[in-house]
Amino acid sequence: MTASAPVLARPNAAQWARKNLFNNWWSGLVTVIALPLLVYLGYRVFLFVFVNAQWEAVTRNLTLFMQGTFPRDQQWRLIAQVLIFALAFGVGAGTNSASTRDAAQDAGLKYTKSTIVGTFRRMWSLALFIAILLYFATLDPAGAWYNPFLLIGAVAAVAVLGYQSKRLPRRVRNLGWVLTGILLVFGFQVVSGFDAGGWVPVGLILGVATYMSIPEGRFNNRWVALGVRLAGAIVVALVVRLIYGVVDTTGVGWDVWSGLHLTLMVSALAIVLAFPLGLLLALARRSTLPALRWIATGYIELIRGVPLIALLFMGQYVLGFLLPEGTDFSSITRAIVAMSLFTSAYVAEIVRGGLQSLPKGQTEAGQALGMAPPTIMRRIVLPQALRAVIPAMVGQFISLFKDSSLLTIIGILEFLGVREIVHAQADFRGVAIAETLVFVAFGYWAFAFAMSRESQRLERRLRVSR
Amino acid sequence: MTSERNPQVYADATQSKGDEAVIECIAVDKFFGDFQALYDINMKVGQQEVVVVIGPSGSGKSTLIRCINRLEKHDRGSITVGGVELTDDIRNVQEIRRETGMVFQSFNLFPHLTVIDNITLAPRQVRRAAKDEAESEAMKLLERVGIPEQARKYPGQLSGGQQQRVAIARSLAMKPKVMLFDEPTSALDPEMIKEVLDVMVELAKGGMTMIVVTHEMGFARAVADRVVFMSDGRIVEVGTPEHFFTDPQEDRTKLFLSQIL
Question: Count of A–B CB contacts within 8 Å?
């Protein structure tokens, strides 16, 4: 179906077909055999999707797939989260776009404005997924989660609003990044609650921002500058702590999250944790200190030799023996730890590859200028090494995202696991198995494909500056 | 191989311009595994002196100047730069590197940074210079090497000659007392060699102390105070350009000159 459609659509279809499908006898033979097969396969897919499939198993359980057993009276938190994340992505995209534009203009490079069409080309798999959700929601409004059209409209409006950060003057451009970071944390906390250690990430972001925004050059003495900057950072962090102490609302802890919501959150958290850990491991493995090197190498080889599923089980059953008495973590926390530890070993090897690919002359140039080894690493080696490994790194993260489906085996209700509840319902016991599988698989694909497309864009854009 | 010292060469190599030696190498040996790359190198370079090192490839020229800023570690003997002896102490090494600029054959600019960021990186990170100061200083240096209009571009957008001039500016930004040039024009297309050599000539005229490893004999003739000829890891002959090119003493020198001139 998909293969033959463009052939017929072209005005010079005959020429195209002769050139590409029948340019010699064996190519013609392959075409003659493959084409009917493809057409037949397309026909069967069409038949399944549009005629035979009983999508009620999905449409009536849309809410379940999206948010699992999340307390229904707390749904507003999820809506708030979606909106805050949309705002965060809008602000991030706007700031990113503006700084790319400035850099390109400074360097006299051609700057191609990102367009809606371009965004759609990268995100069409997600758009398709959302469109299908909307369609299903209209099929069975009772099964839908909130009013999907209202929600989408609000998301779009908020994202566009955030994108206006593009208009921020260049002087305060970094404000956009700070805002993006804080919004991401808020989006998370609006569900998990603003209590306990919740002030830490926001305090950290604002503290670092304060530190960076006090110009060092204003002070004559390096130590005075350091003191003032540190004092500013600490004061800001303490204020954040104070505010959090006053607000202090409990939310819905992640041990009761589930469905696609849980899959996305767990993957995002594991990625955020695995990246810095992997980076440190890669550096440790290349360290000149033997003890550090041995520990890192041992860790990496050990973790890479164990299947993820074994690590997940160990997180549930073995972690308790290693931790002091009385410490208790929810199984989701354990799973996130296990997934981060697992992925960090792979990230470490990917980063190590990037470090080794860098010409020796780069380090030598830094050394010859009298720079200290940590400075050379931070300013010269890492920025280049990390750019070089974006494709491999994103591949690893996509893999992590899909592997989160293994959580279902240790009794955590993630996107794939929701199927088991659905098929425990009286109406769908033993029926529509294929339908729910196809739907879930399509959901994973939509996100993974968008990630892949986004990483390709990132690669292209960073190569421009070389 | 035992190395017998030629007293004349020793005298020429250690007789620097002026009274004070900025760089002093005493009996330096260097090994790569079992292979000995440098044999008994004795050399002094004086204030504002330009020393050009020539010799066939594999003769140890690059190794010698790479030992002077500790990109390679010498195994025996001593190297003193600006009165400080090179030791294993990393602070000491960094101190010497700050006083010693180096220009590489392959430029080694940082491709992820713009030209101006390439130049200001070290002053800001090492000397803790303020951003504005470092940038205005960098612009002056770019004007000196003749490409101020390229400041916001990336190295990949520049020609080889322009890149090498940025590399020179980057080294000068640290205000070094000595500049080391490791075959700075060998990777350049012929039409770009002159623009780099011109910058180097200007630098020499301005009183910079320089050690230049090069195959550009014209440059050696025009600018060098002394020419050092190396072969097989040894200093074979040292002399003023007039003396060296018109009346070489050693057979190895004569052979080399006959091959390249």
Answer: 90
Question: Rounded to an integer, what distance in angstroms lies between the CA atom of residue A16 and that of residue A220?
Answer: 72
Q: How many percent of chain A have pLDDT more than 70?
A: 96
Token code pair at residue A429: 């016991």
Alpha carbon distance A219, A212 (integer Å):
14
Q: Are residues A466 and B128, on separate chains, in Cβ contact within 8 Å?
A: no
Stretch (H or E) spanning A128: helix A116-139
Nearest to A286 by CA among A366, A376, A369, A368: A376
- Tell me which H or E stretch contains B237: strand B234-239
The residues facing B212 across adjacent strands are B52, B181
pTM: 0.87
Encode burial over B82-117: b for 16+ CB neighbours within 10 A, e otherwise. beeebeeeeeebbbbbbbbbbbbbbbbbbbbbbbbb
Residues B121-143 have pLDDT tens digits of 999 999 888 888 999 999 999 99
- What pLDDT score was predicted for residue A193? 86
ipTM, two decimals, is: 0.93
pLDDT band, very low/low/confident/very high, at A196 (cuts 50, 70, 90): low
d(CA A166, CA A211): 24
pLDDT in tens, A395-420: 999 999 999 999 999 999 999 999 99
- All residues of chain A having their beta carbon less than 8 Å from the beta carbon of residue B71 are 364, 367-368
The rounded distance, in Å, linking the Cα atoms of B226 and B21 is 14
Min Cα distance A225 → chain B (Å) is 11
In B15-117, where do the E strands start and end? Answer: 21-32, 35-46, 50-54, 76-81, 84-85, 100-103
Residue type (1 letter), A55: W
Distance CA A74, CA B147 (A): 63
Instruction: Enumerate helices (H) and strands (E) in chain B, giving the number of each.
Output: 10, 10
In angstroms, the CA B17 to CA A33 distance is: 85
Question: Which has the higher per-residue pLDDT, A458 or A277?
Answer: A277
Asked if the model's pLDDT at residue A436 lies above 50, the reply is: yes
Q: Do A251 and A191 form a contact (C-beta atoms < 8 A)?
A: yes
User: Tell me, what DSSP letter sits at residue A405?
Assistant: G
